[in-house]
Amino acid sequence: MANGQIRWGILGTGKIAGEFAQGLQRLPDAQLLAVGSRAKTTAERFAKRYQVPRVYSSYTDLVQDPDVEVIYVATPHVTHKEYCLLCLEAGKAVLCEKPFTVNAAEAAEVIALAREKELFCMEAMWMRFLPAVQEARRLVQANAIGDIQMIQASLGFLMEYDPSHRAFNRDLGGGALLDLGVYPLSLIIQHLGIPDSITSHAHLGETGVDEQAAVILGYADGKLGILNTSLRTYNANDALFMGSAGQIHLHAPLYRPEGLSVQKHTLVVGGGATQATDSAPTGGVTAKLRQIEPLRNLYRRAKPLLAPLLGLQERRLALPAAGNGYHYEAAEVMACLRRGATESDIMPLDETLRIMETMDTIRAQWQLRYPQEA
After folding, report:
1. Whether this model's pTM surpasses 0.85
2. What is the pLDDT of residues 269-297, one digit of tens each?
3. Are residues 10 and 147 in the same domain?
4. SS3 assignment for 157-172
């Protein structure tokens, strides 16, 4: 840690590597010292754009740089296991882009080596470190909406179909679940834990990967996690935490929410009457109109707009991320390194492994296997 700075290397020069390099510039205690690529010209172009002093035309040379302390693995996820192991064998701490690997067996291998060598390792699920997501987590832990009963989250986009693109390419571990669905799944498992049952359905496209899917995670205590993901259409791309006393709406886009809303509930008692748990009016004309089914449905849809007029206790919190948001996960890595921690409490390795195991189970229901799993 020369001059108090932690020295980074980036393995890979794709779009996500550039985003991370840009984010790292917001941290004065971080130095992007080196970049590695399989093509020298690509590495040199990347280095020029992001002012990286050292350039390597092989990943092996990058990990052998004695001054690099931590490496961000930014290659496609079918290569994550190979390159994480390469970094760890060279004694480097690792931040690996999500999804951590293709499957749980690969993840377990990486985690085992990191623990054997007592080196820091973390999945780069950058969403978890953003201010809005951190605040949602704090509110849940503070019991702000009571006991969480259900979480509904989604992430999907209308992507141009290209069978050679990694999202649609089975050889590259393609599919909506690993590419996008890992975001809502990670959020649900962070708050509800490992499910006791999984029900899912997916549409497998011409290339054999899941182009969209719906998944229900069931828990023994009755709680539910519901997620949707798609390469064929836009989803709501948000998350709703539903508790016994209210709900938290994490605003779209899920991968980088700029804020959230907190809404208190009314309690439905026998006979369909309501007992207020907030300041919502329960008598008079408004309450009578809400007993009419069509109007009740309309009220539900319009409630966010009507809340201030009806006196409902809804709080909207603007929590924008600074810059492009990638520096938050890097800051967590550096904080862990400085205190000698080999794992992050926010994104622990056991949780990464459980997420990979859950995705394995889901894919098994679709009979979707990747070539390296044959």
Report:
1. yes
2. 665 544 444 433 344 555 555 566 666 66
3. no
4. CECCCCCCCCCCCHHH
